[in-house]
Amino acid sequence: MDFQLADRLYLRVFEEDNMMLSGELTENIVITGKEGLEELHRTSFYGRPKGDSLELSLTESAYLIYMKKITVKCAGEELDFEQFFIRASNIVKNFELFYIVYKDLRGRGYYVQPSDIGFRVYPRGGHPGKTPAQYLVFVTSERIPLLVSTLNKHLDNSDNKKKRLILAIVDEESDITHYEVKKLIPSGSSVLKPKTLHSVVTLLEDRCMVWEPDESNMLHKEGFFGKPMDEGHLQLSLVESCYLLNNGIMEIEKRNHEKLGFAEFSDIATRIESDFMIKYKVYEKLRKSGLVPKTGFKFGTHFRVYRSFDSISHSDYLVHAISHDHIFSLQQVSRAVRLANSVKKEMIYAVVSDRIDFIVLGRVRL
Q: What is the CATH number that goes with domain 3-133?
């Protein structure tokens, strides 16, 4: 039986018989008697059975009080919805966020159980005891900064449990936006090995110039490196130049003809861009994975990325390089994901530590 239909039937019975189940608030749970097992858990999968009683979370209890399915007492005093809600908010930080998300999920036809980060959500047609949960839902507010380390921990947890991780972000008007978070191992088919240049490339202010026409054309046509300034002269970005230098494809010198090694060049580039080495590591990883990264400035990211050199007219990903201790502003994430979706690309954050993890964030409808 559909749980919403069951809810309506039981609510009608309770109203007709002028009776409701009773529960007792004890620390951070509400406990009902044996009747709760039959009326709440076996039909609509609220709570967790424990012996002859049923344990309800504070979120479930607030919802059931609102639905007029239970009454809750504490030290002999019956609590109305407002009194219970305020007490619960003193016990659980940001309780109102959990309630908003729980009520929304139940209203959408999902069976929901509490988890350590928010909720376990079962697929449509499934329920506890019949099917495993499909989602782990992490509940947060648009105002709460999100640490990359926290997101990675939740991702590892959801992967270990073979669940899909969902961010349920509640804005200041209590609207909810859902984002699916997953890890990706990006790969492409453009493993390119340009020939070694015979001429020397010049570092100007914040880019390098290839002066020899044939070599300029070769780099651009065979690897989509740089952008032609005119016919025969190629401009290379700092990150492209560093990659080609580090891979022995070309030599770089200053305007005074002083040669630059990788360390000297990357030091200069870091003085120009403070996050240069993070960008470089991601760029190098993408190139070695057969992908073609180009500047993503127009999209507000570090790179737009192509999976194939043959389909260079439309990029597949937007990639932004961040450090392992980065703190997300969820408002910035919302803007980035919305823009990526609007131009039919995936938004990827490349997290740089002793390795590089690629985290995809995409908006979903539950």
A: 3.40.1170.20
